[in-house]
């Protein structure tokens, strides 16, 4: 019997995933589930042939270059891979994979929850109720932004952006999008493409961020670009926090130019800028876009499908790069 490949497992993944790992791999598991530091990864990596990590572990150039030559593959339990230095991995001959597709619907659902929750003051009104401070219905309390029939701008018309757009069709929203190139997406033939960022932003009564984080998209929404959005716009982010400059968004929310924000992600996670919490017009969640049991199991299975394919010498289902 040939020895099983050795897999460094940086987090406690769902039971169904851990069970499948134990069948095919000799696993070195981070038992207490804290995100591993670079030093911790290096101290364990010499005993492994591959790593299964999450977006909470940053494999920058320095860490990738320092990895022992035993490491042949890194499978990330995420669709986003801004935490992996793809060029460094490539030059070191390390294969990478991610988990596209399986989390599209769960994440688009949370984008819509953030959109509706922000527009309709769901968090601040519920907080009033939960704290026992709601004393009666009034005609003017908790007034939100009307959603149906409004213009929704989608930044990044990939799988998740398209799934958000399809949900928005159910609210009779007019879809505008900004992307590297126009997209031919079934059911979204009437979505309006803007190659120009300024023209795009001017249309967005609602803006949903669905692009990857990259040097080009970091701080896409900043003091200057926020001003291009129509007065009273609602901003939603379920992609990566640093696509928005938090201090600029907070200032625009305080000033009122932006009516509300729905955020599943933010800068410096898990440390939310406390100014957000002082604002009634913010609906904020702790990065739960893909957090359904079904989706988190499937994400693990996609990681393992990639690892299994790699060790069997077969093409990967979802390679990066
Ligand atoms: C993803 O899959 O990219 C999620 O944001 C979790 O990291």
Question: What structural keywords apply?
Answer:
321 residues; alpha/beta; Rossmann fold; 2 domains; five-stranded parallel beta sheet; 12 helices; 12 strands; binds (2R)-2,3-dihydroxypropanoic acid
Q: Your description of this structure?
A:
Belongs to the D-isomer specific 2-hydroxyacid dehydrogenase family. It holds the Pfam family 2-Hacid_dh_C. This is D-glycerate dehydrogenase. Keywords: NAD, Oxidoreductase. The chain has about 325 residues and is α/β, with parallel strands linked by helices. It has 2 domains: about 5-100 and about 295-310, NAD(P)-binding Rossmann-like Domain (Rossmann fold), CATH 3.40.50.720; about 105-285, NAD(P)-binding Rossmann-like Domain (Rossmann fold, 3-Layer(aba) Sandwich), CATH 3.40.50. Helices cover about 35% and strands about 15% of the residues. It has 12 helices and 12 strands. The strands form 2 sheets. A 7-stranded parallel β-sheet has the order 8-7-6-9-10-11-12, with helices on both faces. A 5-stranded parallel β-sheet has the order 2-1-3-4-5, with helices on both faces. Helix 1 runs parallel beside helix 12 and helix 5 (about 105-120) packs across helix 7 (about 160-170). The longest helix has 19 residues, at about 295-310. The two termini are about 35 Å apart. The structure holds (2R)-2,3-dihydroxypropanoic acid (DGY). (2R)-2,3-dihydroxypropanoic acid binds near residues 55, 103 and 289.
Task: Describe the secondary structure blueprint for this structure.
Layout: E1 6-9, H1 15-24, E2 26-29, H2 38-45, E3 50-53, H3 61-66, E4 73-76, H4 86-92, E5 95-97, H5 104-119, H6 122-130, E6 151-155, H7 159-169, E7 174-178, E8 192-193, H8 197-203, E9 206-209, H9 223-226, E10 233-237, H10 246-255, E11 258-263, H11 274-277, E12 282-284, H12 293-311
Parallel strand pairs: 1-2, 1-3, 3-4, 4-5, 6-7, 6-9, 7-8, 9-10, 10-11, 11-12
Helix pairs in contact: 1-12, 5-7
Domain D-isomer specific 2-hydroxyacid dehydrogenase catalytic: 14-320
InterPro entries: D-isomer_2-hydroxyacid_DH (IPR050223), D-isomer_2_OHA_DH_cat_dom (IPR006139), D-isomer_DH_CS1 (IPR029752), D-isomer_DH_NAD-bd (IPR006140), NAD(P)-bd_dom_sf (IPR036291)
Family: Belongs to the D-isomer specific 2-hydroxyacid dehydrogenase family.
